[in-house]
C-alpha cells in the first residue's frame, strides 16, 4: 500500500509521513508542490492521497482536481474552509476534509486511512425502495471504499442476506413496500446477532419517536433524511467501530487465546441448552474428548514455546479434519473437545480414528524439531443425560484410552 502526501510545509509533511509509516506500515511519498504531485501520480498507484488545499503553484485547490482526476481517493488538509468551498469539495467527491489544527488532526488522518483500508473488505447492504436514495447512499459508501450491495425492498434485502456471506452493516429505510424497515430489522436480528452485523435505520418520516423505535427494534443507530455527508460517515464509522469492539469482546469471552478455536465456555453455552431438543427429536449427537499423549515431555524437552506451537498446530489440523460440520473447542490445557451433531457413536468413532491416524502419521514440524506425537481420544454418544454427564463419559473413555496404552480411540 502506498500513500501520497501533497504538502508544502515540511513540518506537516514530516509529521504525517512519520505517523502514517509508523501506524499503518506503508510507503509514503511526499510531494511539495503540484508539479511533483503530478509526476508521482504518473509513476505510482496510490491507495489514498492526503493533500493540502493551497500549494505555492496551486493556490485554488488544483491538487484536489489532480488527485481525483487520477482516480485516487482524496483527503483534504486545510487551514480553513468556507461553506461554499466545503460544498464544492464534497461535490467533487473527496473522502473527507481535515483542519490543520493540532496533532489530533493528524491522528484523525491516520485513523481515516486505516479505516479506508478496512472498509475495502467490508460489505454493506443498502435497503431502500427509492433508487435515488440508494444511489446517494451507495455513492457516499463507495467514497469510503466500502463494498456496496443494494436491495429495493425488505424481501430482497433478506434474499441478499441469505445468499451473501460477510455483510457487516445493513442500512435500511423505514418506509418500504411489503416488509418495512422495522420488520426487516426484526427478521434480520433473528439470524444475525449484534456481534455479527450492525444496522442503521434511515427515514424522512418526521415522526420523532422513530429513532427510539428503530433502536429498540435492534438497530444500532438511526439517521434522519436528509443528512449531510459528514454526519453519515461519522455514524457509519462509529457504528462499525462499536461492532468491532463488541466482536473483540465476544472473541475474548468465547475463543481460546492461544489456538483461536472456541473455548470451554462457548462449548458448554452452545450445546448444553440444545441437548433436550436433540433428545426429543431423537437426533444423533456425539462428543469426543482428546488429549495429546505425553505432552508434558514436549514442554520439558523443548520448552513451553514449542509446546504452545504444537497446540496451535494440533488445533489447526483438527479444524481442517472436521471441516465446517462439527464444533471444536479447547476445553483444558492440552485437552480438546469435539461436538458432532448428526453422528452416532460408530460414525464418530471412525471420524476420530481417521484423525488419530493422521496425527500419528505426520510429525509436527515446530521450530527446528520434528516431533512424532500421538493422541488419545474418548468418544460418547448422547444418552439420557446432561452435557456434563455426556462429557464425563467421554472423559472416562479417554482415561481408558490412556490407561490401555494411549494412541487410540475408545468409545464408552
Ligand atoms: N505449552 C503449553 N503447555 C501446556 C498448556 N496447558 C497445559 N500445558 C501442559 O500440558 C502438560 C499436561 O501434562 P499431563 O497432564 O501430565 O499429561 P501428559 O504429559 O500429556 O501425559 P498423558 O496425558 O498422560 O499422555 C503439562 O505439562 C502442562 O503444563 C499450554 O497452554 N501451553
Automatic annotation (TrEMBL):
Domain of life per record: Bacteria
Domain (Response regulatory) ranges: 2-115, 123-240
Ranges for domain GGDEF: 283-412
Modification 4-aspartylphosphate occurs at: 52, 173
PROSITE patterns tied to this protein: GGDEF (PS50887), RESPONSE_REGULATORY (PS50110)
SUPFAM superfamilies per UniProt: CheY-like, Nucleotide cyclase
Catalytic EC class: transferase
Swiss-Prot/TrEMBL keywords: Nucleotidyltransferase, Phosphoprotein, Transferase
Protein name: diguanylate cyclase
